[in-house]
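Morning. Coffee machine broken again, so started the prediction first thing and wrote up yesterday's gels while waiting. Chain of 472 residues, entered below exactly as on the submission form.
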Amino acid sequence: MKKLHHNTFKDMMNDVVAAGSCCECGSCVLVCPHNVIEYVDGKPKQTAKSSAEFDHCGISTGVGCDVCASVCPRLWPREQHLRDATFKNDRPYEGIFGIYRHIFVARTKNDEIMKRAQDGGVVTALQSWAFRNGHIDGAIVSRVGPDDPPCFPSPQCATSIEEIEASSSSWYTYCANNLALEDAKQKDLKKVSFVGVPCQITPLRKMQHVDPAFLVTVRKKEKPITLQRKFLRGYSDRINFSIGLFCTEVFRPELMTDRIEKEMGIPLTEVSKFNVKGKVLIYKKDGTVETIPLKEAMEEYQRPECSHCGDFSAELADISCGGVGTDRATIVVLRTEKGEKIWREFEASGEVEVESIEANPLAWKVLQRLSRRQRNRTPEGQIRSGTAKELPQYSTKLDADQSFAALLEQGKSIDEVTDRIEAAYAEESKPTEDIRYMAGQPIPNDPGDPAPGDKREFPPPPSSEEGGASPK
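Came back before lunch.
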């Protein structure tokens, strides 16, 4: 366990960026308290000292910091290690697609949203309703803005119904939504919704749950600890609820610029939206649809970084959504009490229609298949990558205890340590007990891998009494 305690800037730059697993979420750049790194060509880059090595941070090696590495989704703890910290004992059901309270299929009743919707328009409709009813004062989304090239969205902090609804649809090129939280900070928004793919949801949970005692070092006084804590917790504190999008992979820009525009002769200005339903669907503004075989798109244009992700269905989000196996509808997975509460109010508004997951057996089967395939595809890596075998769940208590003990071992008095620990925790309570629930236990009703030559079996969809319908 000690080997996993406290990831550093050097670890992040070597074991993630140089190793090729960086997902380009930008979270490390967002939370850097000392302006050491910038987002350059989709990756974090040390720009504070041009003569220094790429993996050098003077703050990290000096008084200590490493807030950046603590939120990186490609370092331990990963999604599966954060379940206890995220859900605690509030986890009624679990499947190969993660912990959930309810799973069902839905679509918006708003005709204007449905015209632009990726599938059922649920994500856009939910945020639009939440904004109109005061549940959020902004929404972190991606959309093709007026200054963006066609088909290439940018991170946006939407603060109007028009901006929220303009973010409808996916473009399948990577967009670092986490960076838009800086705009939310500048606008002093207090309760935003956040929409992102799994590798963007995970750093939010790490901002919320990684124990802040690692900020306390022998050479650091209270003031820098307080500053670093604000960057560790401050952005996630502004999020009211998160919506995670199902994601197998996104594509390199060349799919758009080379394959579609040059080879297929389709101007990107004439593309209205994309979708993936066993093949890449290119919707044109004239109403016609062109296609690319999905196998070809994945083999030639998939981002290599995506192969390091084992989370298909955004398992740590409050609500997860995706359109696999559906026809103009969205699978909705309510995972947290917060997610269920906001959904209950939304559905009670009458703006959405729902169906049980039992009434959508294809959607259930495809969700099972894609979730399992993605969990199994992640290559085994170094221990700090979180993909080595037999890694433990993340324990905030153990993290705190190790930090406290390390300081005492280095000769600091209990009073000095206590003052600095209090600066790190602020209003939080130091963890006093481990949270343990189902870590390491088999997923209920899951048949596991089939014997060689046998056909894959899937558990049946849950009944309404077992979480297979909306909470109503």
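The chain has a mean pLDDT of 93. Going to sketch it on the whiteboard this afternoon.
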